[in-house]
Amino acid sequence: xxxxxxxxxxxxxxxxxxxxxxxxxxxxxxxxxxxxxxxxxxxxxxxxxxxxxxxxxxxxxxxxxxxxxxxxxxxxxxxxxxxxxxxxxxxxxxxxxxxxxxxxxxxxxxxxxxxxxxxxxxxxxxxxxxxxxxxxxxxxxxxxxxxxxxxxxxxxxxxxxxxxxxxxxxxxxxxxxxxxxxxxxxxxxxxxxxxxxxxxxxxxxxxxxxxxxxxxxxxxxxxxxxxxxxxxxxxxxxxxxxxxxxxxxxxxxxxxxxxxxxxxxxxxxxxxxxxxxxxxxxxxxxxxxxxxxxxxxxxxxxxxxxxxxxxxxxxxxxxxx
Length: 321
Description:
Blueprint: H1 3-19, E1 39-46, H2 50-65, E2 71-77, H3 83-96, E3 100-103, H4 112-120, E4 124-128, H5 134-139, E5 146-148, H6 151-163, E6 171-176, H7 182-198, E7 201-207, H8 212-225, E8 229-234, H9 237-249, E9 257-259, H10 265-272, E10 278-281, H11 284-301, E11 309-310, E12 314-317
Parallel strand pairs: 1-2, 1-3, 3-4, 4-5, 5-11, 6-7, 6-8, 8-9
Antiparallel strand pairs: 10-12
Helix pairs in contact: 2-11, 6-7, 8-9
């Protein structure tokens, strides 16, 4: 190969490298620079969690049905605690020139400064799933609409259903989500309110940070320390799966009731088998779609931030399945 051919080959390799994308693990690639369609970036938490992979699938399907209306870039983090990576994704999407960001923040406070910068850069920002902290939003002097369910009401409904199967004075335990997340805080409050109304005692409440394996370890410890526990309330279905394994290991299947939140496929099967009493369905396949539609409305109308939009959350039991 002569020098001229080597130079041409090197230039071609550099060109291909510059055009590749590492920020779009799933979903359609970003639109070309000369495309007039709005570009929406969906930034989620861990795609290893079935709830968020379902959310991604719903968003991708919606974009395919509205391909003439907008382009979609789907992003997620590997670990729900990887806040720095989610902040980086926001910055990368702004730098790539997206028109809107629809985000399920891994933390209610830590993402606000990056989202303020995105908004100041002219990007429409819509908050889904986990509500951003109102005090931090006020400190950053920014208004970001929330599109999502009332997590406290949903958890209260699940807790009330469980309480109806228990007796006054019974003992239960709670597996919490990440404590800096607003949805985790609200679900905890909903569970607590339901138990208080029914006169049921919460003997232990710990965070398992949304993770199944950690929930398994913590639930096992709870059952050992408090053998009188009659039920475990898990703030998401991944943790409920961990609780199922812990109850089985403790030899207490059929004795300890479990409830969750999210209505993932594995929990639906567990409900049918009687291993889980109930969960809450916040319609994960449509949650991102609700956010995308709100973002497109704001982009197309060139309007100020829209009002919050409350989306449905429903009780799921063996009867309803």
